[in-house]
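User: Please fill in residues for this 170-position structure.
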């Protein structure tokens, strides 16, 4: 949900941030949350790009977030694909990357928020013990978020909701 979905994007020149991602991240940062990316990167297992190319793109992403006044506390990736490398504990919907991030960054997962653009993202969150899960909709911009009992909210309403809720309600 950080970038516009394109098949196996791995080059900076092909990468396009979702419109609204930096503003959304600021809302959470300002509420005291760490910003962490967890991403399946099957293109590595499929040989479409290398780990070094992914790491280069990730370093560039960190710089772009920094230019926006945001710090990414971690980028966790799964380089596997079940039909090539077999099942693994890190590929979403398994919770491995989230559990590793929690261990590395001392995250309180039950009080964390996970936003994703695929049902497998939310399933990984559930398996890791998160209950505050949002499914983001939008092809080139963050348009809406389905968030618990609040239903499907336009992104501006979601940001407003987050800013109104207390820390234990986010």
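Assistant: Residues filled in for all 170 positions:
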């Amino acid at each position: 949900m950080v970038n516009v979905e394109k098949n196996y994007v791995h080059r900076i020149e092909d990468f396009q941030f979702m419109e609204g991602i930096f503003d959304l991240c600021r809302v959470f940062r300002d509420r005291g949350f760490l910003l962490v990316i967890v991403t399946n990167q099957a293109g590595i297992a499929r040989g479409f790009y290398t780990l070094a190319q992914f790491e280069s793109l990730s370093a560039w992403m960190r710089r772009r977030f920094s230019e926006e006044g945001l710090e990414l506390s971690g980028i966790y990736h799964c380089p596997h694909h079940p039909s090539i490398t077999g099942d693994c504990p890190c590929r979403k919907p398994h919770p491995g990357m989230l559990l590793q991030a929690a261990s590395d960054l001392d995250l309180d997962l039950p009080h964390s928020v996970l936003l994703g653009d695929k049902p497998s993202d939310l399933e990984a969150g559930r398996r890791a013990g998160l209950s505050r899960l949002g499914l983001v909709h939008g092809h080139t911009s963050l348009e809406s978020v389905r968030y618990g009992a609040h239903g499907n909210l336009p992104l501006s309403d979601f940001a407003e909701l987050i800013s109104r809720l207390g820390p234990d309600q986010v």
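For context: The first strand starts at residue 35 and ends at 40.
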